[in-house]
Amino acid sequence: MSAASLRRAARESVSGLPPAFWWLWTSTLVNRLGAFVATFMTLYLTLDRGYSASFAGLVVALHGLGGVVSSLVAGVMTDRLGRRPTLLAAQASTALSVALLGFMQHPAAIAAVALLVGTTSNASRPAVAAMMADIVRPEDRVRAFALNYWAINLGFAVSATAAGLIAEYSYLAGFLGEAALTLVCAVLVYVKLPESRPEGGGPGASGTAGATAASGAGAAVGLGTVLRDGRFMGVVGLSFLISLIFTQGSVGLPVAMGAAGFSPGDYGLVIAVNGLLIVVLQIPVTRFIEHRDPQKLLVVSALLAGYGFALTAFAGPVWAYALTVCVWTLAEIVNSPTQMTLVVRLSPVHGRGRYQGVYSMSWAVAALVAPLMAGFVIDRWGAGWLWAATGALGTVAAAGYWLLMRDLASGDRGTGPGAAGGGNTDRKAAREPAAHEPSATPEPSAGCEASATPEPSAAREPAVTAPAGRAPAAAGPLPCADPVGSV
Predict the structure, then answer these.
(1) How far apart are CA 373 and CA 60, in angstroms?
(2) How far apart are the C-alpha atoms of 191 and 161, rounded to whole Å?
(3) Which of 144, 134, 193 is nearest to 15 (CA)?
(4) Averaged pLDDT, 422-447
(5) Based on C-alpha coordinates, what's the Rg of the chain?
(6) How far is it, in rounded angstroms, from Cα 59 to Cα 487?
(7) CA 466, CA 269: separation in Å to the nearest integer?
(8) Burial of 224 (0-12, 13-18, 19+ CB in 10 A)
(9) Would the CA dihedral through 229, 147, 129, 440 be positive or negative?
(10) pTM for this structure?
């Protein structure tokens, strides 16, 4: 491919997204530049503090337990209070709790503050995902989620190497560095990101019939609605299996490498391969998969994840560990934007926070279970059995994706990784209404969407015709209801 073609591909990959998305993207990048606790917690506890792998697994599991609770609470906050207040509260409290963790000495204090860090740090996930869905048009969401994941790993590629070197001299400096950068994220959110939650009675709303109907739709979405959604909960369950595998990169892999005599710097270099490959490959791979069958993409990514980690059992030198990371990194590159866009398509507009909260809970529960699993298996039987278990989990997840998505409607095939067919037309229309935002720098607060059957992602959303008794579309965005009703 010529240099001109590469430049054109890069321009097409980043064009057409609203300014608010790029501020959210910048906040994500800065946050990941400071990633330290989740990556180096096990090494900190086992190598620096001298605790067993089982205790390290317990502490990291408590970190995950905090995330389980905050996923649901933050999901409700995102819908009720708004995306911006939830982000501000999560990031400010994370900065304080991470700094506090660096000064803890007693094992019980370390465990308690790790629980607090897990609670605060995971609370931003539903708000970020819901805000991104609010401000980005449906046909651009695969690309937007891929770019956001790219920012996560661009920051991680830099921070993993730097933090590995910092950890060899001072773990406290790593904790304080993450706290400072997380605080910078809170400042960015406060200064640059307006609220994007769909609101009732916004500009351009005239009459009450439409607003009343929208309000009723919003009131119907509670946590019970999410839990009764069979297909969505199936996706959540499979996400749990996948995240259980991927989490071993930060809990099982460092413990296994430490037991094999490798230093924190060696682990930092190996895991940095993960972030570096995503930085290099995420955008071109996303362009390749954007209009391909999501069922096949999710099946292949599950197999690559499971067997990529299983290959770690045969790794010896550092370069061999790095090669195994290459395999399961490709699975991440395919799985993340595909699954995230699928989740948005399955989520009703006024329940995005709750749906994203339950989806985030799958990762939080995995963060709770994976350390316990890794510590127990490694201490009892050795790392080889852990890697064999990841291969089995990948196989089960692949079969699950195949069965869950085999009845996708033929009309949704090839519309991109976010395609989520099945169900009747009314159900699909309620889940993903057509976007009405103009392509030129839309206001994030105008992120509401009018009900219409979603068009294929390759096409632009059609203009929305205003119903009788409502102001024309040019006068302002269509009204959306403030989500109310049951939790």
Answers:
(1) 11
(2) 30
(3) 144
(4) 38
(5) 22
(6) 30
(7) 56
(8) exposed
(9) negative
(10) 0.64
pLDDT tens track for 182-231: 888 888 888 888 888 876 433 333 333 333 333 344 445 777 888 888 88
The mean pLDDT of 373-389, rounded to a whole number, is 86
Structural tokens at position 459: 């096409």
pLDDT over threshold 60, residue 444? no
Q: Output the pLDDT for position 407.
A: 66
Evaluate whether 235 touches 339 at the Cβ level (below 8 Å). yes
At which residue do the structure tokens 């190598």 appear?
A: 47
Give me the phi and psi of 305, to 5 degrees please: -65, -50
Q: Which of the four pLDDT bands, split at 50, 70 and 90, describes residue 474?
A: very low
Coil/strand/helix, residue 412: helix
Coil, helix or strand for 304?
helix
In terms of Cβ atoms closer than 10 Å to its own Cβ (0-12, 13-18, 19+), residue 137 is: buried
| Range in 183-187, 354-358, 405-409 the model is least confident about | 405-409
Structure tokens at 85: 């207040």
Q: CA 391, CA 7: separation in Å to the nearest integer?
A: 39
DSSP H stretches of helix in 194-312: 209-219, 223-227, 230-246, 252-259, 264-289, 294-310
Of 339, 346, 325, 203, give the one whose Cα is nearest residue 274: 325
pLDDT of 150 strictly over 70: yes
Residue 41 Cα distances to 131, 162, 313, 335, angstroms: 30, 15, 22, 26
Sign of CA dihedral 425, 131, 147, 370: negative
Q: Taking CA 1 as the corner, what is the angle to CA 460 and CA 273, rounded to the nearest 5 degrees?
A: 90
- How many angstroms separate the CA atoms of 426 and 439, rounded? 27
Q: Which two tokens stand for residue 458?
A: 């390759």
* Residue 290 and residue 417 in contact, taking contact as beta carbons nearer than 8 Å: yes
Tokens standing for residue 478: 């269509």
Q: Which residues contact 346 (CB under 8 A, 6 or more apart)?
A: 229, 231, 232, 235, 355, 420, 431
DSSP state string for 310-355: HGGGG--SHHHHHHHHHHHHHHHHHHHHHHHHHHHHTS-GGGHHHH
pLDDT category of residue 302 using cuts at 50, 70 and 90: very high
Q: Which helix (H) or strand (E) holds 435?
A: strand 434-435
d(CA 233, CA 227): 7
Both tokens of 317, joined, read 């030198």
